[in-house]
C-alpha cells in the first residue's frame, strides 16, 4: 500500500475504479466544446489544472464523472472529455451522492460556485460532507453571482455594493472552510486560482482521499468582482498575508526580514512575530488530527480582508464513507434474508378495498 505525504492510505478515493489500458495525456481530457468563460476568468486555470493532473490518476475517462449545478463554474462538465451532467441549482451534491452510492466503479466530482453551493444548495452540501460520501467537491469562490450578472453572494463581504445591494450588503458571509469543518468533512482545503502548482497538488490529494473532499478555490471574476483576491497575488502583499499549510511543518509566513508564526492563544490561534515568541511555541501543522476543532481554529485566522489568508490542506482524516456503508448494509440484508418479491407484494400489510 502506498502512502501520501499526509500519512494516509494512497489512492483511497480511487479504490475499485478501473484504470486506463494506455497512458493518457491532458489533451485526452479536453472535449471538443468551445470554452465560453470571460477572458481573465479564474475558471480557466482550474480547468487546465484538472485536465493536466487527471492522467496521473491512471483512470479510464468513462469512469470519471463531473456533476455541476448552476453558475459560470457549472459549465465545467462540457469541457471535460469524461462523463458529466449539468444538473440543477444547488442539487449537484444530492445527484452525485446517488451516483457515488450506486456506482463504486466511478470517480465522482462536483463542481459548484459560492452561490450554487452555499445559498440554495447549502443543505445538500453540508449533508454530503457530514455523511462522508466519496465525492470530490470543487467550490469556486469569487464572492459574487457571476452568471446572473453581479448580485451579492453568501461569501460577499459586509458592505459589498452590488446590483442587489446598492447600499451595501448587510449579510455576514460564510467561511466555506469553517462551514465544511463544522460539518466534520474528512478532507478540507483552500487554494488560489493563480497558484497553479498548489491547485494541482491539492486536487490530486483530494482525488486520492476516500470520502468527501472539499476544496475551496479563490477565483477571480473579471467582469463583476474583478480584483477580489489581487492582494493575494501581489508579490509583496502575498508574502505578508498567505499562510501556506504544510503537514508536519511549523506554520510560519512573511518576508525574510519580518517572519510571523501561528501560536496557540487563550481563545484559539493567533499570529505573532517570530522575534517575539519562542520557536517551540509555533504550531506544527497536523492535517491528520481527528478533532476537527484544530482545523476549525486555523480556518478562523484572518477575515474578510484576507489578512492573513490560510491556504493548503486543513484536514485529511479517514473515516467510513456513506456509500461504502450503504452498499455493505444492502449486501448484508440480502445475505441474511434474500429478497422475496412475492412476499413483499402479498405480505401481512396488504388489504383489499
Automatic annotation (TrEMBL):
InterPro entries: 2-oxoacid:Fd_oxidoreductase, THDP-binding, TPP_enzyme_TPP-bd. Gene3D superfamilies: 3.40.50.970. Keywords: Oxidoreductase. Residues 70-217 form the Thiamine pyrophosphate enzyme TPP-binding domain. Pfam families: TPP_enzyme_C. The keyword Zinc does not apply. Residues 1-29 are annotated as: Disordered. The keyword NAD does not apply. CDD domains: TPP_OGFOR. This is 2-oxoacid:ferredoxin oxidoreductase subunit beta.
Amino acid at each position: 500500500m502506498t502512502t501520501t505525504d499526509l500519512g494516509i492510505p494512497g489512492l483511497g478515493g480511487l479504490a475499485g475504479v478501473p484504470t486506463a489500458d494506455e497512458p493518457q495525456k491532458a489533451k485526452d481530457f479536453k472535449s471538443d466544446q468551445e470554452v465560453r468563460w470571460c477572458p481573465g476568468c479564474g475558471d480557466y486555470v482550474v480547468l487546465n489544472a484538472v485536465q493536466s493532473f487527471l492522467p496521473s490518476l491512471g483512470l479510464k475517462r468513462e469512469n470519471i464523472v463531473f456533476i455541476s449545478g448552476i453558475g459560470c463554474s457549472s459549465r465545467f462538465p462540457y469541457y471535460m472529455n469524461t462523463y458529466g451532467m449539468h444538473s440543477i441549482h444547488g442539487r449537484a451534491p444530492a445527484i452525485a451522492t446517488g451516483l457515488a452510492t450506486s456506482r463504486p466503479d466511478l470517480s465522482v466530482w462536483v463542481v459548484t460556485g459560492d452561490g450554487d453551493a452555499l445559498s440554495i444548495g447549502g443543505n445538500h452540501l453540508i449533508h454530503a460532507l457530514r455523511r462522508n460520501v466519496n465525492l470530490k467537491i470543487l467550490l469556486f469562490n469569487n464572492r459574487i453571482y457571476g452568471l446572473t450578472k453581479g448580485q451579492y453572494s453568501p461569501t460577499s463581504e459586509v458592505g459589498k455594493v452590488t446590483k442587489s445591494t446598492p447600499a451595501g450588503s448587510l449579510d455576514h458571509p460564510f467561511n466555506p472552510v469553517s462551514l465544511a469543518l463544522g460539518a466534520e468533512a474528512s478532507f478540507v482545503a483552500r487554494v488560489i486560482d493563480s497558484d497553479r502548482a498548489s491547485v494541482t497538488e491539492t486536487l490530486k490529494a483530494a482525488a486520492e482521499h476516500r470520502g468527501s473532499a472539499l476544496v475551496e478555490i479563490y477565483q477571480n471574476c473579471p467582469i463583476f468582482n474583478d480584483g477580489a483576491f489581487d492582494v493575494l497575488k501581489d508579490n509583496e502583499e502575498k508574502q505578508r498575508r498567505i499562510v501556506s499549510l504544510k503537514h508536519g511543518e511549523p506554520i510560519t509566513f512573511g518576508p525574510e526580514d519580518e517572519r510571523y508564526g501561528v501560536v496557540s492563544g487563550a481563545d484559539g490561534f493567533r499570529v505573532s512575530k517570530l522575534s517575539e515568541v519562542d520557536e517551540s511555541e509555533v504550531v506544527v501543522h497536523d492535517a491528520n488530527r481527528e478533532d476537527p476543532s484544530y482545523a476549525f481554529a486555523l480556518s478562523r485566522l484572518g477575515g474578510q480582508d484576507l489578512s492573513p489568508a490560510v491556504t493548503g490542506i486543513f484536514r485529511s482524516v479517514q473515516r467510513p464513507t456513506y456509500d461504502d456503508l450503504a452498499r455493505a448494509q444492502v449486501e448484508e440484508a440480502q445475505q441474511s434474508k434474500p429478497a422475496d418479491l412475492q412476499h413483499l407484494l402479498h405480505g401481512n400489510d396488504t388489504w383489499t378495498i
